[in-house]
């Protein structure tokens, strides 16, 4: 049996608008209607950028032991992330664990997007980053800010390598996300934390930056915003954004391959499919032109328009767009 992955949600939103569409679907699908409506109603059409390697692999979704490395296999590529080490005062060497979760992914997306946009591996971490995070719905204060600082520290200290099949080089020479930066100034209680905390710059690792410039993948910023708290859905959206618009014909991907690429954090194999289906539904909702079918053998991917090339519709009205 084959079924289209929530393609009906897009049609309902286009035909009836968000409010009526929400009333027409099961309660568990109303969040998908909201995601699709927000992406379709996006008038700005701003883009995010990621490196091809992150379309085929990804960081862990949950925290690992601080001394644990992370390895993830994708199609013809493997990602290895090793934790960094620091020395505080006269104490012993301590591990800083590898980055994980949605917050780490959003920081990396900002760094990559700005580097490509400005044509420089030196990226501002001040007002530009705060404004971008705000557009993504991430408030700088409170627990969110604390989580962002923690993930930034993990990104700055970890070692990263992509290993591509069929290439002469076995990996990246340094294996880092950043060369310098992502450090935070200590402030007195009277200081303006909101204004000054990110007044810094980060320099991306040269090998990573060169690879990013040669192999950038455009993403829809509105989609990233809707998935900013869903790390598994972010990974699937980025994968689909990379794969679908390059296909020449329907292409099957078996469950075994999907589990190898996306199943590292789901524990027992029996828990993979339900969690994967839920994450995929949100990813497809954020990519309304995606054509994906679920089958007994896996997924059937159909050639689809790029997420950044899709027309932008206003979906607040009850009538469908014309033309």
Percent of sequence in beta strands? 15-25%
- Number-wise, the strands total 14
**Overall tally of structural domains:** 2
What is the SS-derived class? alpha+beta
- Could you give a short account of the major beta sheet? 4 strands, antiparallel
Residue stretches low in confidence (pLDDT < 50, at least 5 long) are 184-199, 310-323
The number of distinct helices, counting runs of at least 4 residues, comes to 12
The proportion of residues forming helix, as a percent range, comes to 40-55%
Shape by Cα distribution: globular
> What is the succession of H and E elements?
EHHEHEEEEHEHHEEHEHEHHEHHEE
Mean pLDDT: 84
The strand line-up of the biggest sheet is 1-13-14-12
Intertermini distance: 34 Å
Computed Rg? 20 Å
Organism: Paeniroseomonas aquatica
Protein name: Replication protein RepA
InterPro entries: RepA_C
Pfam family, one: RepA_C
General description of the model:
By secondary structure, this protein is α+β, with helices and mostly antiparallel strands. It folds into two domains: 115 residues, no CATH class; 165 residues, no CATH class. The protein is 41% helix and 18% strand. It has twelve helices and 14 strands. It has a four-stranded antiparallel beta sheet with strand order 1-13-14-12. Strands 3-4-8 form a three-stranded antiparallel beta sheet. A three-stranded antiparallel beta sheet has the order 7-10-9. Helix 10 packs across helix 12. The longest helix has 18 residues. The radius of gyration is 20 Å and the shape is globular. The chain starts with a strand and ends in a 22-residue tail after the last strand. This is Replication protein RepA. Pfam families: RepA_C. InterPro entries: RepA_C.
């Amino acid at each position: 049996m084959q079924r289209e992955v929530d393609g009906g949600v897009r049609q309902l939103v286009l035909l009836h608008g968000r409010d009526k569409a929400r009333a027409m679907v099961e309660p568990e699908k109303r969040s998908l209607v909201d995601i699709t409506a927000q992406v379709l109603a996006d008038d700005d059409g701003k883009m995010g950028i990621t490196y091809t390697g992150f379309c085929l692999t990804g960081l862990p979704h949950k925290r690992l032991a601080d001394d644990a490395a992370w390895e993830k296999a994708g199609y013809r590529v493997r990602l290895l992330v090793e934790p960094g080490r620091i020395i505080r005062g006269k104490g012993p060497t301590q591990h800083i664990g590898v980055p994980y979760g949605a917050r780490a992914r959003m920081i990396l997306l900002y760094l990559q997007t700005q580097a490509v946009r400005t044509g420089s591996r030196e990226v501002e971490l001040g007002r530009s980053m705060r404004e971008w995070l705000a557009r993504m719905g991430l408030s700088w204060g409170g627990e969110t800010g604390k989580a962002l600082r923690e993930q930034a520290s993990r990104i700055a200290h970890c070692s990263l390598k992509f290993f591509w099949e069929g290439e002469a080089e076995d990996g990246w020479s340094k294996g880092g996300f950043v060369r310098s930066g992502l450090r935070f100034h200590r402030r007195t209680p009277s200081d303006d934390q909101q204004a000054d905390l990110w007044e810094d710059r980060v320099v991306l690792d040269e090998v990573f930056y060169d690879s990013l410039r040669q192999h950038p993948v455009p993403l829809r910023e509105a989609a990233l915003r809707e998935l900013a708290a869903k790390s598994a859905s972010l990974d699937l959206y980025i994968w689909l954004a990379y794969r679908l618009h390059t296909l020449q014909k329907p292409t099957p991907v078996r469950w075994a391959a999907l589990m190898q690429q996306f199943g590292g954090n789901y524990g027992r194999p029996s828990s993979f499919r339900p969690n994967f289906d839920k994450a995929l539904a949100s990813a497809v909702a954020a990519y309304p032109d995606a054509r994906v079918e679920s089958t007994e053998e896996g997924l059937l991917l159909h050639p689809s328009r790029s997420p950044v090339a899709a027309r932008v519709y206003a979906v607040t009205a009850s009538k469908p767009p014309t033309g």
